[in-house]
Amino acid sequence: MVLASPRQTPRAPASRLAVTADATVDVALVLAIDVSGSVSQDRLMLQRRGYSDALCHPGFAEAVRSGPAGRVALTFVQWSEARRQKQSVAWRLIDDAATARRFAQAITDADLPMPGWTSISAAIDYSARLIASSGLTAGRKVIDVSGDGSNNDGRDVTAARDDAVAAGITVNGLPIVEVEPGLDEYYRRNVIGGPGAFVVVARDIGSFAEALLRKLLVEVAYTSPAGAGEVETRQRRG
């Protein structure tokens, strides 16, 4: 069931990092999570807990330190329909376990937005604008889309993906296939794109945290997708 909501034009909030002396990072990564009507509050909280557990895992901080700059930039976006996205946690520099834990806590403390339809395309467009306005110098630019349904609002998702890829952004996917069988293949064909783009599948909400950790380790350390264990991939070069 999808709750009715007023249509409001989204605005990508000011996201320039306070640190301007040296805003060079190995990767600028948008964590974009589906909060549409198909996601119950219990499932949403489990997803948030999955993000917190993954970011607090010792392997994540090790992966961050393994890059040339030794740090990454993260922001957290909650999205549903075409006119409803929110940057719930602004850009932050992550360079050790302590900064990763603080970012994880910010995700846990973020407000719960109202649900709506499912617009993956608008989530990609919004996330791409956040990257463009961040002021970061990033070796890689990545949008990490997680969700449990296909695009049913807004423009065609492949058009949004292709525009992001044209802007030098890689779009990766973490579909939760418990609600919509075949969503993993939908993500492979329509959502992911760019150099090294890949899909990690969560078979149910209980496996979300493990799948997310594997995915983040690949994105941050930029290892081969096969290095993340049982990662299901379909690379798209754009």
What can you tell me about this protein's structure?
Helix 4 runs parallel beside helix 5. The chain has one domain: von Willebrand factor, type A domain (Rossmann fold, 3-Layer(aba) Sandwich), CATH 3.40.50.410. Helix 5 links the parallel strand 4 and strand 5. The protein is of the alpha/beta class. The N terminus and C terminus are likely disordered. It contains 7 helices and 5 strands, in the order E-H-H-E-E-H-H-E-H-E-H-H. The protein is 34% helix and 20% strand. The protein is globular, with a radius of gyration of 16 Å. Strands 3-2-1-4-5 form a 5-stranded mixed β-sheet, with helices on both faces.
CATH class: Alpha Beta
Quote the beta fraction. 15-25%
Report the uncertain regions.
1-16, 227-238
Helix content: 25-40%
Strand/helix succession: EHHEEHHEHEHH
Radius of gyration: 16 Å
Shape: globular
Distance between the termini: 35 Å
Query: How many domains make up the 3D coordinates?
Result: 1
* CATH-assigned fold name: Rossmann fold
> Care to count the β-strands?
5
What oligomeric state do the depicted chains represent?
single chain
* Gross CATH architecture: 3-Layer(aba) Sandwich
Number of helices: 7
Under CATH, the homologous superfamily reads von Willebrand factor, type A domain
Secondary structural class: alpha/beta
| Overall residue-averaged pLDDT value | 85
Largest sheet: 5 strands, mixed
Strand order of the largest sheet: 3-2-1-4-5
